[in-house]
Amino acid sequence: MKLNQILICALLPLGGLMAQTADYPFRNTRLPLEERIDDLLSRLTLEEKVQMMKHESPAVPRLGILAYNWWNEALHGVARTQEKVTVFPQAIGMAATFDTEALRTMGDMTSTEGRALFNEDLKAGKTGEIYRGLTYWTPNVNIFRDPRWGRGQETYGEDPYLTAKMGAAIVQGLEGDDPFYLKAAACAKHYAVHSGPEGIRHEFDSRVTAYDLWDTYLPAFRELVVKEKVHGVMCAYNRFNGEPCCGNNELLQDILRNQWHFEGYVTSDCGAVYDFAHYHKTHVDDTEAVADAVLSGTDLECGNLYPRLIQAVAQGLITEKEINVSLRRLLEIQFRLGFYDPQEQVPYSNIGREVIECEAHRQHAYRMAQESMVLLKNEKNTLPLDADKLKRIALIGPNMNNEQTLLANYFGVPSEIITPYESLSRRFGGQIVIDTLTGVGIVDKLPDAPSFSEIAARAKKADVIIFVGGISADYEGEAGDAGAAGYAGFASGDRTSMALPSVQTELLKELDKTGKPLVVVNMSGSVMSFDWESRHVDAILQAWYGGQAAGDAIVDVLFGDYNPAGRMPLTTYMNDEDLPPFEDYSMANRTYRYYKGDVRYPFGYGLSYTTFRYAEPQNAATLQTGEPLQVTTTVTNTGNRAGDEVVQLYVIHPQNGQTRVPKCALKGFQRIHLAKGESKEVSFILTPEELGLVNQDGNLVERAGKVDIYIGGGQPYLSEGDFSSVEIQGDNYTVY
Length: 736
Known about the structure:
Elements: H1 3-11, H2 14-21, H3 33-43, H4 46-51, E1 56-57, E2 68-69, H5 91-95, H6 100-124, H7 160-175, E3 188-191, E4 205-206, H8 210-217, H9 219-227, E5 232-235, E6 239-240, E7 243-244, H10 249-259, E8 265-268, H11 272-280, H12 286-296, H13 309-314, H14 320-336, H15 359-372, E9 374-378, E10 392-396, H16 403-407, H17 420-428, E11 433-437, H18 452-459, E12 464-470, E13 490-491, E14 494-495, H19 502-512, E15 518-523, H20 533-536, E16 539-542, H21 550-558, E17 572-573, H22 591-594, E18 599-601, E19 612-614, E20 622-624, E21 629-637, E22 643-652, E23 665-674, E24 679-686, H23 688-691, E25 693-694, E26 700-702, E27 705-712, E28 721-729, E29 733-734
Parallel strand pairs: 3-5, 4-6, 5-8, 10-11, 10-12, 12-15, 15-16, 20-28
Antiparallel strand pairs: 1-2, 6-7, 9-16, 13-14, 17-18, 19-21, 21-24, 22-23, 22-27, 25-26, 26-29, 27-28
Helix pairs in contact: 3-14, 6-7, 6-15, 7-9, 11-12, 15-21, 17-21, 18-19
């Protein structure tokens, strides 16, 4: 094409570009998708192809193809855009809701807002900006195996089953339900065996047994790929058993493509292909690295090395035909997003700006914040507080009015962020004196602040002390984003201690001396061990990073306008000494399924202002392998107020002493609402997959023998609930 023709095309608006190429077969929506992709591939040069395999894919003006940036985030709302958007609780907080339907709705609302922004860009012919596209690199379904991992806040906790079901829900919401067109394309990350340490992630080699791989690290990915047909997968930075994940044939070819029949696209994590030669030292140079990445199945590079594929072709390291395999997958995603079709045919093209931060979205962010709150301690029924009996509240702590903390990481920015201070002031400012003192920073004392004894003396005048502490995503998160160098308890985005920062505990000890009721509201993306706090303060509320409506949700729980029912998606260990080395990826003595010691707050734990009674579960006494099992119970609200209950089902296999078997494993959950005195029947269908066990070779097998089933408000022996048993008969049934 001549230079003057290129300039004319570049100046044409979108409609002009489309008109110039309308007769090309790849624009013909009546043709089969394969033919359309074949036609487009045939018109692209090798140079254009490899450019389109970068996350910053440039325009191809002669074909009317607009630039597109594949990198976008939607962890808990559309992230990093310059627009004001709805911000939901951080992922770990949404996991604490144990509410898949609420998470599915959140995903749907997020992609609705993202579509509105993209539709505007598309009409203007500007689709190349970062964080504006429809390919969301969400959800993070890595296992939060160690509470020190800074990015664990982006996950759905330590349990493979909970992670799988919550991940599936957000994929459903993000991608929509049209039989052809995608509302957005979700992406399961970081594949696989990836959960810290952050500081060495670019060179770390994760080594695990086949048992741990298939029992812990892969189930959530399998759920999203095999059952939900997620359209994207992101390979991780680290090596797995010696090979970089983005060049790992076992992960990307044998498991993902051959066993799971994945048909979507694989993107590298950003800069991961660069790591091959420069950090992992597994490849001679970047040219060899890019060829190996594509041949292994990494279709898109987040980075700028894939232009070296031209050199790789010249050197015989890869062929253009092999490059076409990856580009075909990328083009199919773009076709299914409607990029090459008349917009009147795309069902999501009419979504407009009016949906962004609409009332329904704001209310759902508020609801999810309420549902995420986990009441850990409530000594002598300190909570809920009675506003009619309070004249003065001492509101203290580094997060009592810190808007940024509520947004966590990978966040968007809403028009309004409601902190605990703002919520209390709006509700009770004319009724109750709210004495505020930040008192202390997150990790150190504030300059020119009163002494702790002076703060305590002032707080003693109040009827109750509410301390809003914890940490923030400035201290835990992704390496490079969260920097707390020089502070005890943190390193390269990770935590080195589960303890609340010592400066906050020191202040709490002074406040405890006042003798006034002391309530701790903790904001964090992981657990705090609460060694001193659990023994001395009157109440503890785990509030996570609750998004734009967190303040209202917290105050609702503190004053009884909402009955807390969140459940811990993580185990709270007693102290740091209980944890194995961070770099050890074995699941032995990790998480509730394998930990052998006492814990402070178990996985699945959370208090309520009411009580519930469980009837004995009802199920068949015997079952043939390969058949489903229905288990039913009745739950009754026996307390004095309405509230939600998270009904949890655990399967317990006998310990045989020869192979590793989980102590118990979550295999079903439902969040229900019960009025005072109301009863409700709750049923679960357990499949062979949920009744099976992974063997040492990594195969999931349902075996003959007795299996115990527990249904209650938490783990067996640790909550209100009851047991039943089933005798499984027949030959072993291999699920996969």
